[in-house]
């Protein structure tokens, strides 16, 4: 099993969400994050535009079976890419095991409803 974490532009979230659904990935977690980077973004506060190196992004986290990892990554890349700096990053980690809390089912079978 693989855990895939992706940092993407907030504006591309709906596109990535749809791409994941189209790829058969029906469950993932996400949250809003703030990062620091070399690039800057314009922030509008009370009508004033400020440049900031604090960058608003969205982090997605999904655990998939090994055979679904590549199609998940490709779906994210295709949907999140603008071709400009700041498109994001994808990280892939090995998952040793998983358990379904409800019934104690373990391993890759615990990831999806039968």
Strand order of the largest sheet: 2-3-1-4
Query: What is the structural class?
Result: alpha+beta
User: Care to count the β-strands?
Assistant: 4
Return the CATH topology.
Alpha-Beta Plaits
Biggest sheet record = 4 strands, antiparallel
Total count of helical runs of at least 4 residues: 2
In words, what does this structure look like?
This protein is of the alpha+beta class and 114 residues long. It has one domain: Alpha-Beta Plaits (2-Layer Sandwich). Helices cover 19% and strands 43% of the residues. It has 2 helices and 4 strands; from the N terminus they run E-H-E-E-H-E. It has a 4-stranded antiparallel β-sheet, covered by helices on one side. A hairpin with a 2-residue loop joins strand 2 and strand 3. Helix 1 (13-22) runs antiparallel to helix 2 (69-80). The longest helix is centred in the middle third of the chain and has 12 residues, at 69-80. The radius of gyration is 17 Å and the shape is elongated. The protein starts with a strand and ends in a 20-residue tail after the last strand.
Question: Which key features would you list for this structure?
Answer:
alpha+beta, Alpha-Beta Plaits, 4-stranded antiparallel beta sheet, 43% strand, elongated
Question: How is the secondary structure organized here?
Answer:
Elements: E1 2-9, H1 13-22, E2 29-45, E3 48-64, H2 69-80, E4 88-94
Antiparallel strand pairs: 1-3, 1-4, 2-3
Helix pairs in contact: 1-2
């Amino acid at each position: 099993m693989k855990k895939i974490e992706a940092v993407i532009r907030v504006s591309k979230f709906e596109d990535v969400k749809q791409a994941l659904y189209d790829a058969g990935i029906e469950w993932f977690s996400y949250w809003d994050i703030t990062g620091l980077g070399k690039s800057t973004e314009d922030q509008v506060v009370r009508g004033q535009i400020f440049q900031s190196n604090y960058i608003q992004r969205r982090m997605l986290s999904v655990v998939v079976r090994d055979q679904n990892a590549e199609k998940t990554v490709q779906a994210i890349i295709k949907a999140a890419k603008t071709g400009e700096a700041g498109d994001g990053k994808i990280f892939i980690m090995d998952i040793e095991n998983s358990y379904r809390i409800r019934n104690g089912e373990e391993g890759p079978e615990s990831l999806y409803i039968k």
